[in-house]
Design brief:
By secondary structure, this protein is an alpha/beta fold. The protein contains 7 helices and 11 strands. The protein has 2 domains: 53 residues; 92 residues, no CATH class. 51% of the residues lie in helices and 19% in strands. The strands form 3 sheets. It has a 4-stranded mixed sheet, with helices on one face. The mean pLDDT is 78. Belongs to the zinc-associated anti-sigma factor (ZAS) superfamily. Anti-sigma-W factor family. Pfam families: zf-HC2.
């Protein structure tokens, strides 16, 4: 018997499909051929292993399942504030806007104070140093804003007058048709800026 035939008969032998004469012939060949004998032992070992796996009912071990689940990466838990941000986008945007405005206005507030004057009729105003004067013979149409300075009103203002971080003086001859705002606190100034911003957006 040659080795090729012996190998083909090994499978039938292990499956009990080999006739007795062929079994004797195969056994004789295995005694004479060391290589086929080694291959047969490996094949026999593999067949026994497969038999034990397929014929022994095995239930999945709870301990094994727990260990496998423990090895899996755990899903990352989202922080509470991240969940809140995702559930309230409008409030988050508003809060971010207020924070940005707060920091920008505070940083601007801390800068070197310079006189800032806003008026549609700037040429009618008299500026002496850090003092803005509305002369008695002048009528100013529109709003006037004075930042980081003094405002002295002797004439007429047909609008609002706002003095930020400064001083306001009104003579007996002064007449202001609109509102007079004297803002000298940082938080009041910030609120004034935010209010004006929303007012400008509303009228655009």
């Amino acid at each position: 018997m040659d080795c090729k035939l012996a190998v083909s008969l090994m499978h039938d032998y292990l499956d009990n499909d080999l006739s007795e004469p062929k079994q004797l012939e195969l056994k004789q060949h295995l005694q004479e051929c060391a290589e086929c004998r080694v291959n047969f032992e490996k094949l026999e070992h593999t067949d026994m292993l497969l038999f034990s796996l397929t014929h022994h009912a095995t239930k999945p071990s709870d301990d094994l399942a727990d260990r496998i689940m423990g090895m899996l990466p755990k899903p990352k838990k989202q922080k509470a504030w991240v969940t809140w941000v995702r559930n309230h986008p409008a409030l988050t945007a508003a809060a971010m806007f207020v924070v940005v405005m707060l920091f920008s206005t505070i940083s601007f507030w801390n800068q070197e104070n310079q006189l800032v004057v806003k008026s549609d009729e700037f040429e009618k105003l008299v500026i002496e140093g850090d003092t803005v004067i509305i002369p008695a013979d002048q009528v100013i149409a529109g709003d006037i804003t004075v930042e980081n300075g003094k405002a002295k009103v002797y004439g007429q203002v047909n609008g609002n007058l706002t003095v930020i971080d400064g001083e306001l003086f009104q003579a007996s001859t002064a007449h202001i048709a609109g509102q007079v705002k004297d803002i000298d606190k940082a938080m009041d100034w910030i609120w004034y800026k935010i209010s004006n911003l929303f007012t400008d957006v509303a009228y655009r």
